[in-house]
Amino acid sequence: MTGWAKTIMIAVAVVVVCLLLVFGVLGGAAMMGYRAAMRAGYEAATIQNLKTIAAVEARYFISHHRAYASLDQLISEQSLSTKFAGHPTIADGYVLNLSVARRADGSSRYKITADPPTESEDVNHFYLDSDDDRIHVNSERQAGPADPSN
Q: C-alpha angle 114/35/119, rounded to 5°?
């Protein structure tokens, strides 16, 4: 092989390596953007799910003598979609937990949490209850009524 051929081979190898690095960086950035978009989509869907459950619970409360219902009861009455079925209930990338409790006056109250199935950075936890129509958010742990509202 002549000196020119070796020089050309080295130049081609350098160009190929540089292109691979550029495509690797672009691919990594695209993957990060994709994950961020998916996370934002799951959070938006979860907020809408919480609003839907709150509206269905309000209708149930009015028509069932000041009592709230479990997700299973709301599904069986066809007030909620079967997407909320299951134990645990996983909808749109979040684990939903609805609990109903009786008060001393005979009425009931509910609270619902929405948490990611696994802990990771930049993921929000949500909380909503029958005493407050605001959705509370916490990015570090399970949300509760003392957390800021969305």
A: 40
